[in-house]
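User: Before I run my own analysis I want an independent prediction to cross-check against. Here's the chain; please return only the structure tokens and, at the end, one sentence I can use as a sanity check.
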Amino acid sequence: MEYKEFVQTVAERAGLSREEAADLTRATLETLGERLSSGEARHLAKHLPDPLPESLSAEGRSEQFGLHDFVVRVSRRTGLTERETTGGVRAVLTTLRETIPDDTFGHAMLQLPGEFLEMVESAT
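Assistant: Structure tokens:
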């Protein structure tokens, strides 16, 4: 999937403009980069269309936080409400699942609390 198609898919799923979806996608990947191990973030980034890998740079140690804190961090980065952000994060994660190989997505989800995968599964 190309970048424009990725962002358009997120926009449609989340009910946001393309600009909001692009910003939300960047913020979600930045936050995911803080949560995943640096090796897992690098592996995931290899499968993303340019320029998305730039947003998924994990430097240093991964932080441990749950879905609510994840949404709050993304919300602060985007200025969207937590409700909009929750739907947006769901849209980004679901689009990621459709874009990258299943094993790559599965390995990333193993590093996250189960509530992340439940969020993706509930969107399908």
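Sanity check: The chain has a mean pLDDT of 91.
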